Give the backbone structure.
Amino acid sequence: MADKNKPDAALKKLDALVGKWVTELRLIDGKTKTDFRIIGTDTYEWQPGQFFLVHDVDVRMDGEPYQVTEFIGGYDKSSKSYPMRSFDSQGNFQTMQASVDKEGVWTFAGETTRATLTVGDDGSTMTAHWEQTKDGKKWSPWMDMKFTRIR
Amino acid sequence: MAVDTTQVSQPPTLKPEHRRLHVFVGRWKVVGWNKESAPVAPGAKVTGEETYEWLTGGFFIVSRFQHHFGDDAHIGIGTIGYDAASQTYINHNFDNMGYARRYEVNVHDYTWMFTGEFERCTLVFSADGNRKTENWEITSDGSNWQPLCDMTAIKIR
């Protein structure tokens, strides 16, 4: 902890998420999809130092408030990924790994849930597709999300 | 966002141990000193502020700290929660120097002991909960501990 550490250049790729977004969600159950509904907001903000992005989720699920505070960062060179650690209003602590490809499409990988997140060309919208698994082998579509930037 | 309904066999339930974290909640004004064996700014005065608030649901405290010493500042954000499986509290901190730290925390009466890989802290609350003192130590080898800093905080809100 002697000299001022500098954030890995790869962390700047997270800039694409920074801001406040209105969140819409539709659930997928087999071939059935609900309609998209606005459920709340997602906010991404850098912490001082620019090593960690704080992601706050403030939504309602089934009419009940649901909130998550998640920390994304720093950058792990060996796995080319960004650790994600989330803490939610139901008492769950969950870890996932984020990675991004050459086209700027993000993948969030967890043990039982995973997602791809695509930022629109002008940066004002994002879409995400979530899948889940009960056995770690068979993945089923779970939900689609749309994000519209408000800040 | 990940509402993971498949990961745990039983969803977490609120226990008295969660409510015990309420002693942290508030805004604190901090004053202290780095010790001579501190690796950064040894002997410097420390001033700063900390805030602790509940995340909705009552399971986790979100903590934010800003500690200034000399020309430097140690700024970070984290959580404290109770892990029923290990029957300890867990504190995660993410700071402006790029460190993601994890501490196991045990409590006895007014004393909270934070133990991490390279730092540990003995934190004692006053009986009325408006004051806390912290004695931090640091190690490079996991067995020899040196004083790092002492801090006192007064709750201002």
Observations:
- Helices of chain B lie at 16-19.
- The interface with chain A takes residues 1-4, 6-8, 11-14, 18, 39-40, 55-57, 59-60, 62, 73, 75-77, 79, 81, 83, 90, 92, 94-100 of chain B (CB under 8 Å).
